[in-house]
Amino acid sequence: MTNAPTDQFPDRPTVAIVGGGICGLGIGWRLAAAGCAVDVFEKGKAGREASWAAAGMLAANVETEPGEEALLALNLESQAAWPDFATELEAVSGVDLGYRDEGILVVAAHRDDAAELRNTYEFHRSLGLEVEWLTGGQARRMEPHLAPGVSAAVSSVKDHQVDNRQLVRALHEAFLRSGGRLHEDTTVEAIDVEAGQAKGIQVAGQRREADMVLLAAGAWSYDIDGVPPVARPPVRPLKGQVIALQMAPRAPIIDRVIWGPGIYLVPRRDGTLILGATVEEKGFDSDLTAGGVFRLLEAAWEILPQIEELPIKEMWVGFRPTSRDDAPILGPTAVDGLVVATGHHRNGVLLAPLTIDAVSAFMLDGTLSEAVEPFGIGRFNADAAAKAGNEE
User: Fold this and answer.
1) pLDDT single digits (tens) 316-348
2) 33-37, 67-71, 116-120, 255-259: which range is least confident on average?
């Protein structure tokens, strides 16, 4: 699928996108398909940072924590959009996303964990979420290889998964098929801002002019030069170590995503079993550590002892782009023509459909959905102003 030539749409803006992950490629796809001239600039290979390192869980229900009620509404809206989004993207790209809807099982590894799980279950029920309490025996009937010590579980049938690496491949293909231009191994040195307006970007010391600039550089979004403080997204990297084991594809030891204390296990159709992920405030430290790997394996073994015989397929480190309040930063900034889509923390894959559609719609016609409005960068500026006022 290709678009009509861009010169048939003279009213469409030219767009430079900083960052070639899920947000950059996805929004670029929508804009290019609408007739914009779109260039995506990625410092490495497209989609090979947080988008590649993720596990692909669409867990709006079981991941909700106290204080995240506003974010829950956003997550649920995006989760509901995922089936149609997946169907559309597969049709456009020709790439199977590995979307699976078996649900997620959250287990208590021991009796001591059951009380905490029960509290979380009651909290989720109070929010109207569709979760079901199970005994350990009921959980083992669903997943026979769970450890005998598993004493209770919660089933969430509405929480699904997608293969995030297939998602990256699909968005990459859809973007190119729609006429977008991708510049890999190309570092954006700065965003050019003049008189409060974004004019383009700096690459290799030269300006690349654009009518609009999208900053979607994940955990690196804060570090792009040229952005005034009022428009600089407060995003930091949150390190996560991840392990992939290899199951027999025709005889996997689990059939659905399983969560336990300090661990999640995500099965893929090819037999890959993902164990993740540590949460570390270590900046851009990319080292795999003995302690991190040990904690993951120990936590996984406690609830699924059969992993002991599985070969290690791959291990990696990713950097979650995390904002001050763990919620995404979406939409316009105080700089005219500069738009942001970053700070998704652990929900980048889950929020992909909503982020892609809402941000691209704003860039095309200036409208911002009500769901996204509370998650603009202005909330941090308002917090800073309120704090300053209180100090006076």
Assistant:
1) 999 999 999 999 999 999 999 999 999 999 999
2) 67-71
Flag whether 143 is in a domain: yes
Burial environment of residue 123 by CB neighbours within 10 A (0 to 12, 13 to 18, 19 or more): middle
The residues, ordered by sequence, that sit 6+ positions from 272 with a Cβ below 8 Å of its Cβ are 244, 245, 246, 247, 313
Give how many domains the chain has, as a whole number. 2
Residue that is last in its domain, among 322, 350, 379: 322
How far apart CA 61 and CA 59 sit, in angstroms, is 5
Q: What is the pLDDT of residue 10?
A: 58
Looking at the structure, tell me whether residues 171 and 294 fall in a common domain: no
C-alpha atoms less than 13 angstroms from C-alpha of 171 in its C-beta half-sphere: 30
What are the structure tokens assigned to 369, written together?
Answer: 């959905």
Each residue's pLDDT tens digit, 170-222: 999 999 999 999 999 999 999 999 999 999 999 999 999 999 999 999 999 99
Domain that holds residue 176: 6-53+166-234+325-391
Overall residue count recorded for the chain in this entry = 392
Paired sense of beta strands 104-108 and 257-260, if any: parallel
State residue 95's pLDDT score.
98
Q: Are residues 204 and 334 in the same domain?
A: yes
Beta bridge partners of 126: none
Verify that 313 and 288 share a domain, yes or no: yes
What is the arithmetic mean of pLDDT over 355-379?
A: 96
What CATH number is attached to the domain comprising 180? 3.50.50.60
Find the CATH number of the domain harbouring 278.
3.30.9.10
Region 49-71: mean pLDDT is 96
Residues in Cβ contact with 181 at an 8 Å cutoff, skipping those fewer than 6 apart:
37, 38, 39, 40
Q: Which residues contact 221 (CB under 8 A, 6 or more apart)?
A: 18, 19, 215, 233, 235, 321, 340, 342, 343
| pTM (2 d.p.) | 0.94
Of 322, 352, 373, at which residue does a domain stop? Answer: 322
| Secondary structure E strands in 247-376 | 257-260, 263-267, 272-276, 312-323, 329-332, 338-342
Number of helical (H) and strand (E) elements in the chain, helices listed first: 9, 19
Please tell me whether residues 23 and 123 are part of one structural domain.
no
183 touches 196 (CB < 8 A): no
What integer pLDDT is reported at residue 9 of this predicted model? Answer: 56
